[in-house]
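hey so u asked for the seq, here:
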Amino acid sequence: MMIKTEKMVYSVIREEHMIHNDFFLRCLEFPAGSRPQRLTMTCLAGGKALYEVRYEKEEIEKRLQYSKEEVARYRTSSLKRILGLSYRPENAFFHEHFSFFSSEAAKELFIRAEGEEGTLEQRVEILPYKSVNTYRFPMGGTLLVTDTYPSINSHRWCRNSEFAFDVGMFDETLEKVAIEGRAVMAACDGIVEEVF
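ran it, structure tokens below
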């Protein structure tokens, strides 16, 4: 038995006196019937612990219940886009956001779940997020940009739009939406893979 999770995650790395690590783990799925009593997630660089989060039984139970209620709200067609799964996980822990400063960038997340059934461990590679593209803003004019990547309750938890943002436009009264029908230009050269 093992913990199922993403094999790797992307971290936004910024240098602000120290290294700011910022990444999101969407789903930890435990084997059916497994109820961890303690969950420890340790961020490592070169085998050295940089940052650690630990949950005990009561909080784990609350998070498992939250995740059960949350996944019930997802459309079946959205599971792949949001979680990277083609099924609804029964026993999962959702939405863990890591944002911390350290002397170096984290390279690995070590997950350890201890319970009556024994101990489960999993490792997740942490890669620095760096776009290979140079982007231009896709619209002209004065716009309201919201839900950028630091907004963890918006695009961040969704696998295929983690670094997306929302754009709005209003008339001079700020009461009427004025973005409908406006031209949207390609942000960079490429092929549109999907629209929904």
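The CA atoms of residues 172 and 178 lie 9 Å apart. Helices lie at 57-73, 79-83.
lmk if thats what u needed
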